[in-house]
Amino acid sequence: MKKLKLNDEVIVISGRDKGRKGKILKVLANKVIVSGINMIKRHVRKEGIVEKEAALDASNVAIFNPSSGKADRVGFKFNGSGEKVRIFKSTKEVIV
Question: Sheet of 56-57: strands edge to edge?
């Protein structure tokens, strides 16, 4: 089970977009693509100049904990039915 998944809300913890939040659009091997973060321009023949998101290293983002309003770390535990779930390390709440 991976710590970061599709549609998780993350916050950038280093780089030029530090402090900005967004949802994960795509998870690659050790990188993630976050909506509206790390925008680059590409020259495309028909459309002209297109602005799109570039990949960020997974170590440069942290999952956003809405209850505390801060970045948090991800842990794992087994719930009552024996299923492995992700939790916030600081509050021990299950990540939905």
Answer: 56-57, 31-34, 21-27, 9-12, 61-65, 70-72
Domain positions in the chain: 9-88
Could you say which architecture CATH assigns to the domain 9-88?
Roll (2.30)
Per-residue pLDDT of the chain (96 residues; tens, 9 = 90+): 899 999 999 999 999 999 999 999 999 999 999 999 999 999 999 999 999 999 999 999 999 999 999 999 999 999 999 999 999 999 999 998
Q: Where are the alpha helices (DSSP H) in 12-93?
A: none
Is this model's pTM higher than 0.70 or not?
Answer: yes
Separation CA 94–CA 78 (nearest Å): 10
